[in-house]
Amino acid sequence: MTKTCPGVRSRHRGRSVCVRLPLAAAIHLACLSGAYAAEEVDQAPQQSSTQQPSGEKPTASLGEVTVTAQKRTENAQAVALSIDVLSTDKLSEMNVNGLTDYVKMLPSVSIQSASPGFSQVFMRGVTSGSVGNNGVANHSASMPSVGIYLDEQPITTIQGALDVHIYDVQRVEALAGPQGTLYGASSQAGTIRIITNKPDPSAFAASVSTEINSIAHGTMGYTVEGFVNVPLRENLALRVVGWDEHDGGYIDNVLGARTYPTSGITASNASRVHDAYNESWLKGARAALKLDLNDDWSISPTIMGQSQHNGGVYSFDPKIGDLKVSHGYPEWQEDRWVQSALTVQGKIGNFDLVYAYSHLNRSDWVDQDYADYGFWYDTLVGYGSYLKDNDGNYINPGQHIHGEDIYAKSSHELRIASPKDQRFRFVGGFFAERQSHRIFQNYQITGLADDTSITGWPGTLWLTKQHRVDEDYAVFGEASYDITDQLTATLGARFFHTENSLRGFFGFGPGYSSSQGEAICFSDYKFDGAPCSDVDQTTKQNDHVGKANLTYKIDNDKMIYATWSEGFRPGGINRRPGLHPYQADILTNYEFGWKTEWLDHRLRWNGAVFQENWKDFQFAILGANGLTEIKNANQARIRGLETNLTWAATYNLTLSAGFTYLNSVLTANYCGLTKANGDPVSSADCTDPSLPDVSPSAPLAPKGTRLPTAAKQKGNLSARYVFDAFGGEGYFQAAGFFEGRRRTDLRIAQNNLIGDMPGYGSVDLSAGLKKDAWMFDVYMKNAFDSRGEINRYTECDISHCVQPRGDVNSGVFGQYYITPIQPRTIGFRVTRNFD
């Protein structure tokens, strides 16, 4: 799949690739082309309004919503795709600041989160509930199943989606279902696109907004944000955006102590006691330039950066109390990233050409209390007996982690699209992406003996020093043909080559383990300061996915469509010796949808019913020593309904609702075993002739088991009423959100131990006034202080951290954590616009 180019060298050792050719070609064409007006890829008006004759009472009508979901500018109602769009106005009206705010408005989307900036996003229930040490995917996990884009550029990393601050954003598009043909590997279950406002050379504009807020059971916060759009010349404009946000805390770290059984040592957290433990600070900026080279071509460079510091943890221990933990080691997270992007767009004849480049640098630093691991392993298997100081005395076996994840991700996309008003039209192109991830995790025990520590790392029980690289190269295209004025057929395909490699060191020192870490090193190469190397593996794949669609236009306001589409995630490396690489998994979607407008464009009703078959899906667990293992888990099926409705009931009152129902189950037994070729075992007794040493046992999750994390039902309902007030426009708004009960683990025994996440509802209320250039808003999020759960997890394998007592009537002992939605938050915001 990789094509060589004379004289063009890449960073890959021993080979050359066409990494610079798309940029060179695009700029060359920009400088030489001529006579057709360019169409802005993402700078399209969000809504159109109906002008009323003077003196007549205005009538209610829904405006047109424009999207670029299919890589061209279109009316959302004309796109044969299940898509939710949150416009600039909607984002502002709903007081959206970040990921968790807009996800609750998208019924097809769910998240698994440990703290801001560290969340995994899922769509349509395509999730196996795979976990890491803090309840979300870690560096050893599969690629995400939902792609997140910032304008034209992918911003999805292994750690999860970037939590982009939502301000001066034109819209958020949520594309449900596999988007494999146009968006590739990280869009197996869907894609979320954040489209920013672009520089406008036609007029000056600016705005500044300040906000104060208070969280129930916690502390005060504030937000200051603003933008300025400056025309520099008639063909050149600059847009600069900035924000500074402080969120109050609401998790208390309370006084507590625990006694370790083996040594009898009692550890207290007295020095770490702190109310509102989880305060957060967020700063960021974006600068974009737009240069119109001529009537046909433009260049748009953009740079955006954000720094977020989170103190403490965003979860609580229900054994300790509501919104309380008792931790004795430092806890904080730092997430910093900068993305540089360049978009070149224009025309060759009647054809639109777009080149999009981006480079993302992301650095995460984490300190985490990991004492639960030491305590429960000591309680169950006497783990503390192996941990002593240099004099042979027992020590506190509580662990604490320092981790660093350094990402560098570059992508190139060159695509061409034919005129959209032609009977036959197409879009196609080339995509290349490389993500480098340098991993450092240091599991420390204070006072640990030198002969038990990692060589050269005093006090370190376990060390991870690795370099992971994920590459993706693809050609893609979609073509549509109007069979009649009402019937259109579309075919699409993506041919891809992916590679995943992992090299470096992980494991224990020679004085602690004879089967892990230094004991199994095959090379003396001290990778990045590690004592040696014990992993160096690569896996590759060539494959393709496809799409077919039929769309029937009933009239100008109504259409129906039927779609078959595929999405994929690449396979990858398992670190544990003896485990095979995990295979790619494929999601196949069968969908029937409708898009309709009624009552003279006052009522919009869209929806889709679908079935998605998930083959050999990747499932990650925490295995022995808390080491992530990924295996293919056979088959699953998701059947669902998603629908949304917007009604302009009167000129003053707008009602909207969205709802998703999912029935997601295993269609084959999950045994947790794979054959020698990597295929999953699914027999009734979980045995296979190729695995003679495996004893017969029951499936870990039998056929028919519901998939975890995503609820059967999720929905929202909102009402907004506007009215004349004080010479301006006032409003009242109420919005309700609900999410049903969710399993926490695919495996029956583990889920029974930690329990389901119960269903919950929440209500947001707001009111405000807009007068001249001023806007005043007051809001109350989660008005009734619901303790809805968005995650439930343990620090070690559930079967160790949570165990049933001998007396089945006395419940369980152990430790797990609940990540709640943010408690009731009341805020007041003032905005001043300038033009």
Core attributes:
single chain, disordered N terminus, Maltoporin, Chain A, 835 residues, 22-stranded antiparallel beta barrel, five-stranded mixed sheet, globular, mainly beta
Indicate the overall shape: globular
State mean pLDDT (0 to 100 scale). 88
Q: Radius of gyration over alpha carbons?
A: 27 Å
What structural category arises from helix and sheet content?
A: mainly beta
Helix amount: under 10%
Distance between the ends? 51 Å
In terms of DSSP E residues, the strand content is over 45%
CATH superfamily: TonB-dependent receptor, beta-barrel domain
Low-pLDDT regions: 1-55, 133-137, 805-811
CATH topology: Maltoporin, Chain A
**Tally of helical runs:** 7
The main sheet comes to: 22 strands, antiparallel, barrel
The total number of structural domains is: 1
Tell me which CATH architecture applies here.
Answer: Beta Barrel
Number of strands: 43
What CATH first level would be assigned? Mainly Beta
Q: Overview of this structure, please?
A:
The protein is built from 7 helices and 43 strands. With 835 residues, the protein is mainly beta. The two termini are 51 Å apart. The model is unreliable at 1-55, 133-137 and 805-811 (pLDDT under 50). The longest helix has 12 residues, at 21-32. It has a 22-stranded antiparallel β-barrel. The chain has a single domain (21-45, 61-690, 698-816), classed as Beta Barrel (Maltoporin, Chain A).
